[in-house]
């Protein structure tokens, strides 16, 4: 304790070891360092990553207890932590597999190696292998689940099972990172990618409504169990209420637009992790969102680009790369960016842009390796 990595690990611990949502033993002696309201202590980090990683920690604990029972345990080596660290790698490769399955269902022939290269070069691979307790691999996994379930719904005669599963995938996405509000409209976006028109019938299906009701109850119970209150505001968990107000304060309209325009250019092309160089698929996904509709429609373009607006807004609000590798608050956009980009395969010069993306992805992947293998970039 105390930091983001440990927060997510604490969630896994309370599930895999304690079988409860009481964090008093995980945060003993550090009750005032993380979330603390009316004596209820909890990590600041969101719950979902720990939930998905908890089976690996549980397995690791079983293996460790076996070695302890045979008196061959190594006091300098933790089998539970080793197996826990493999969780992010497992979900990374599972995400790549599901993304390719999505592309195949969309009748797009992309090799698994190309998907692996583009996904890894986004920067997510750094967190899979280096900061394995962080949420970014799990974000991309849960967003991919929403996309996968939505594609199954729209390509499988709008099956009731897919309609029931979609709210569950959305709940998982929000539990992993609550600010990914665009998860709610992802099924609508995927419906357009497939049929080139918006279809809101999913949101009216009784199976979708029933599942959504269950998910709402589950979310409420988790919120009360972890934080002692029902809240949908991430600022409450992080204790940063009023930050949004400070984003606009002390600005004229002109200075606000000017500052955020300059910062947006830094996000896109800056030498310090500009996404064109270091997360190229997000850049190409952003550009591709402008060409999904053949006919210009302000509403359509706004819906397509709204996930990018939301996530870019988070970075502009913090005015930071978030103290690790890349603009990590943008990483949840990687699966959607891949779908956006390859959905434009019929466009003129697509193969040229595809080769540019692959070339930039190799550059980005080598950048991750350089970043990982020099002591000059250690967070400590």
Structure description:
With 380 residues, this protein is mainly α. 64% of the residues lie in helices and 2% in strands. The protein is built from 16 helices and two strands. It has helices at 4-16, 48-69, 79-105, 112-129, 136-155, 160-176, 186-195, 206-227, 234-238, 243-248, 253-269, 275-278, 280-288, 298-318, 334-342, 350-372; strands spanning 35-37, 40-42. The protein has a two-stranded antiparallel ribbon. The chain is globular, with a radius of gyration of 21 Å. The model has no long low-confidence stretch (mean pLDDT 89).
Helices and strands in order:
Layout: H1 4-16, E1 35-37, E2 40-42, H2 48-69, H3 79-105, H4 112-129, H5 136-155, H6 160-176, H7 186-195, H8 206-227, H9 234-238, H10 243-248, H11 253-269, H12 275-278, H13 280-288, H14 298-318, H15 334-342, H16 350-372
Antiparallel strand pairs: 1-2
Helix pairs in contact: 1-2, 2-3, 3-4, 3-5, 4-16, 5-6, 5-7, 6-8, 13-15
- Which class best fits the helix and strand makeup? mainly alpha
What share of residues is helical? 55-70%
How does the overall form come out from the CA principal axes? globular
Distance between the termini: 14 Å
What sequence of helices (H) and strands (E) makes up the elements?
A: HEEHHHHHHHHHHHHHHH
List the total number of helices: 16
Rg result: 21 Å
DSSP strand count = 2
pLDDT averaged residue by residue: 89
Biggest sheet record: 2 strands, antiparallel
The fraction of residues assigned to DSSP E strands is under 5%
Strand order, biggest sheet?
Answer: 1-2
Low-confidence stretches are none
């Amino acid at each position: 304790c105390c930091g983001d990595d440990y927060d997510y690990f604490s969630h896994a611990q309370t599930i895999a070891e304690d079988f409860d949502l009481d964090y008093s033993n995980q945060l003993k002696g550090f009750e005032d360092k993380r979330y603390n309201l009316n004596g209820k202590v909890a990590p600041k980090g969101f719950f979902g990553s720990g939930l998905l990683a908890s089976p690996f920690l549980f397995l690791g604990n079983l293996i460790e207890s076996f070695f302890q029972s045979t008196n061959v345990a190594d006091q300098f080596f933790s089998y539970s932590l080793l197996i826990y660290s493999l969780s992010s790698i497992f979900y990374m490769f599972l995400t790549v597999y599901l993304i390719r399955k999505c592309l195949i269902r969309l009748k797009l022939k992309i090799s698994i190696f190309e998907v692996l290269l583009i996904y890894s070069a986004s920067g997510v691979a750094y967190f899979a292998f280096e900061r394995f307790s962080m949420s970014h691999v799990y974000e991309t996994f849960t967003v991919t689940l929403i996309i996968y379930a939505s594609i199954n719904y729209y390509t499988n005669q709008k099956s009731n099972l897919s309609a029931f599963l979609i709210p569950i995938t959305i709940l998982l996405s929000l539990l992993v990172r609550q600010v990914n509000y665009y998860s709610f409209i992802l099924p609508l976006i995927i419906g357009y990618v497939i049929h080139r028109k918006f279809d809101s019938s999913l949101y009216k299906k009784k199976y979708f409504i029933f599942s959504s009701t269950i998910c709402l109850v589950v979310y409420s119970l988790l919120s009360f169990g972890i934080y002692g209150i029902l809240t949908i505001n991430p600022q409450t968990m992080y204790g940063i209420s009023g930050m949004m107000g400070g984003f606009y304060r002390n600005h004229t309209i002109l200075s606000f637009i000017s500052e955020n325009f300059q910062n947006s250019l830094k996000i896109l092309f800056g030498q310090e992790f500009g996404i064109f160089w270091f997360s190229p698929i997000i850049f190409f996904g952003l550009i591709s969102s402008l060409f999904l509709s053949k006919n210009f429609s302000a509403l359509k373009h706004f819906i397509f680009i709204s996930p990018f607006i939301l996530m870019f807004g988070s970075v502009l609000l913090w005015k930071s790369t978030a103290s690790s590798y890349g603009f990590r608050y943008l990483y949840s956009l990687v699966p959607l960016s891949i779908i956006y980009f390859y959905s434009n395969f019929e466009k003129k010069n697509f193969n040229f842009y595809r080769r540019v993306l692959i070339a930039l992805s190799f550059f980005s992947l080598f950048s991750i390796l350089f970043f990982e293998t020099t002591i000059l970039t250690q967070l400590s």
